[in-house]
Structures are given as structure tokens and as C-alpha cells.
Design a protein that fits this description.
This protein is mostly helical. Helices cover 83% and strands 0% of the residues. It has helices spanning 2-36, 39-70, 74-107, 118-122, 124-144, 147-177, 182-214. The radius of gyration is 19 Å and the shape is elongated.
């Protein structure tokens, strides 16, 4: 029985890893599509969202089978539960990527007279890179079962909150000079909100990694990066 469950857990981890890679690619492409107003790239993201959803359902089903057939306990049970919750958070990240890509499709950037300095002032590119960095670091912390890396994910989320909080001020200033771009700016706020929420879901993933490794529940604990430094 032990041998069989070990092989199933290895397969489950591989599936989650594949889901992780796909979602990372989705967020990367969606961010690039927004920054360059590349509607074709954004459309690719929207089409691949179906694959994200299909993978989520497959992993959920496999988790249910493992619990029903093998009745895992202790660290094996923590691992399976962590994979289940990580899978859910990854699917939500895929949703955010699709929503961000929709902005690039709907805006038709080639017809907009957007100040070249606006995105730089908004630090949108920096925000996209930070989300990707957090997701990559969380994945590495799971692969290496490294609590310090998971703690660093929590710390990185602070920058996303900072950029998101400053965005409305920058956009308000821009609107005072370009009132004709009101709709564009309102829709752009939703991109920042999705990226900020993406950071929240990645910290949720880091919490599940800590739970798996250390049997410590951080949810609703008001955790900071000081927990594991």
C-alpha cells in the first residue's frame, strides 16, 4: 500500500507542476499583451484558459481518488490537501490572466493616444514581474521544501500592495490632463486589481506549502515575512 500511494503522490505533484507551468505562462503572456497592446497574444491567453480549467478538474478528481482509495495520513495527507488548495489557487490565477488579457483585446491600443510615460509611472511592468517572481519562488519553495523561500513570498506581496495603492493617484493625475481617456483608465484599474489579487492567491499558495512542510496553519494569522526569518 505504501508503495502504491507514493507513486500516486509523485504523479499528483507532477500534475500540479504542469498546472503551475501553464498558469505562469498565462500570466506572463497576459502581462506582455497589456504592456504592448498585443491583441493576438491576449487572444491566445483566452483560448488556453479552457486548458487551465480542464487541468484543475483533473487534479481535483485525482485528489479525491487518492483520499478514497489510500486514506493518507500525517504528512501524506497534508501534502494531498495542500495540492488540492494550491490547485484551486492556480485556477484562480488563470482566471486573472484571462481577465487581464481581455483588457488588451477590448482596448484596441493602436487607436489610443496613450502617454508613453504612463505605464512607467504606474509601474505596471514592475507589478507583472513581481507577480511572476512570486509564483516562481513559491514553486521553488515547494520543490525544495524550503520554508525561507515561502516566507519571502509573503514579503514580496508588500510591493504589489504598494504599487496598487499608488495607481489611482497616478491615473487621476493623467485624467486631469486627458479626460477623454476616462474609460481606458477605469478599465486599467481592474488590471491592477487583478494583479494585486493574484499576489494574494500566491501568498495563499505559500501558506499551503508551509502547512505541508511544517504542519503550521498560517491562514487568517496575519502572517508576515518575520514568521520564518
Amino acid at each position: 500500500m505504501v508503495k502504491f500511494i507514493e507513486s500516486e503522490l509523485v504523479l499528483l505533484k507532477k500534475e500540479v507542476d504542469e498546472m503551475w507551468t501553464l498558469v505562469y505562462s498565462q500570466l506572463d503572456r497576459a502581462g506582455e499583451a497589456v504592456l504592448t497592446f498585443d491583441s493576438e497574444l491576449a487572444q491566445q491567453v483566452r483560448l488556453r484558459e479552457r486548458r487551465v480549467n480542464a487541468m484543475e478538474l483533473k487534479i481535483d478528481s485525482d485528489v479525491e481518488d487518492i483520499i478514497a482509495l489510500y486514506n493518507p495520513v500525517a504528512i501524506d495527507l497534508r501534502f494531498v490537501l495542500a495540492m488540492l488548495k494550491i490547485n484551486t489557487n492556480l485556477e484562480r490565477l488563470g482566471d486573472f490572466a484571462e481577465g487581464i488579457a481581455r483588457f488588451a483585446i477590448d482596448c484596441k491600443g493602436d487607436s489610443l493616444d496613450i502617454d508613453e510615460e504612463l505605464f512607467a509611472r504606474l509601474r505596471l511592468g514592475e507589478m507583472v514581474r513581481q507577480v511572476l517572481s512570486m509564483l516562481e519562488l513559491a514553486k521553488k519553495s515547494l520543490q525544495e521544501e524550503n520554508l525561507e523561500m515561502a516566507a519571502n513570498v509573503f514579503a514580496k506581496d508588500n510591493l504589489l500592495d504598494e504599487i496598487n495603492a499608488e495607481a489611482p493617484k497616478v491615473l487621476a493625475d493623467y485624467l486631469s490632463r486627458h479626460p477623454e481617456q476616462a474609460l481606458f483608465c477605469l478599465e486599467l484599474v481592474s488590471v491592477f486589481r487583478k494583479l494585486e489579487r493574484a499576489g494574494d492567491h500566491i501568498t495563499n499558495i505559500a501558506e499551503e506549502i508551509v502547512f505541508f512542510i511544517d504542519a503550521k496553519v498560517l491562514k487568517h494569522s496575519g502572517h508576515t515575512d518575520e514568521h520564518y526569518t
